Amino acid sequence: MDERRTVKVSKYLSRHLRHQPQRIGITLDAQGWVPVEELLRACAREGFPVSRAELDHVVAANDKQRFTVDGDRIRAAQGHTVTVDLGLPPARPPEYLYHGTVGRALTAIRAEGLRPMARHHVHLSPDRGTATRVGARRGVPVVLTVRAGAMHRAGHVFRVSANGVWLTDGVPPAFLG
């Protein structure tokens, strides 16, 4: 499978497993899972056929490990705008986590902190490199340091997804560096 097709399938799956399952006629369960065969049938029905081999390749090759397969089910690891409960237990974060953004967002972030916007959680990276790549998707990246350990000690809850992305409800400005 060539890189262009891998990216195209990954984006298609992300759109429908995170944001618009109804658009292709699938229903995610409460935890975001859908049977693989149901997803593949829906893709084909909507004019975007994906083979099981292609799906397995995208799951394995995705640099961000955006998808989780469990037996005959698949779901997005995080980043949903549709209501799902990923069932992730609270976890103790490292002392510092990072958030990639762009300069034009800094004024609002400094005033309001990090908010989940259309998603359910704020996404934080365990390292600066990942945060830089995330921020670069929208322009020249700016990496913010989040004092996650201090937030945790102050009572904020963190969870970590299967692909290592840290999730929290929001980051108040006082915890941003």
UniProtKB/TrEMBL annotation:
It is an enzyme of class 2 (transferase). Keywords: NAD, Transferase. It holds the Pfam family PTS_2-RNA. InterPro entries: Ptrans_KptA/Tpt1, RNA_2'-PTrans_C, RNA_2'-PTrans_KptA, RNA_2'-PTrans_N. The keyword NAD applies. Removes the 2'-phosphate from RNA via an intermediate in which the phosphate is ADP-ribosylated by NAD followed by a presumed transesterification to release the RNA and generate ADP-ribose 1''-2''-cyclic phosphate (APPR>P). May function as an ADP-ribosylase. Signal peptide: none annotated. This is Probable RNA 2'-phosphotransferase. Its EC number is 2.7.1.-. Gene3D superfamilies: 3.20.170.30, RNA 2'-phosphotransferase, Tpt1/KptA family, N-terminal domain. Coiled coil: none annotated. It comes from the Bacteria. It comes from Streptomyces nitrosporeus. GO terms for molecular function: NAD+ poly-ADP-ribosyltransferase activity; tRNA 2'-phosphotransferase activity. GO terms for biological process: tRNA splicing, via endonucleolytic cleavage and ligation. Belongs to the KptA/TPT1 family.
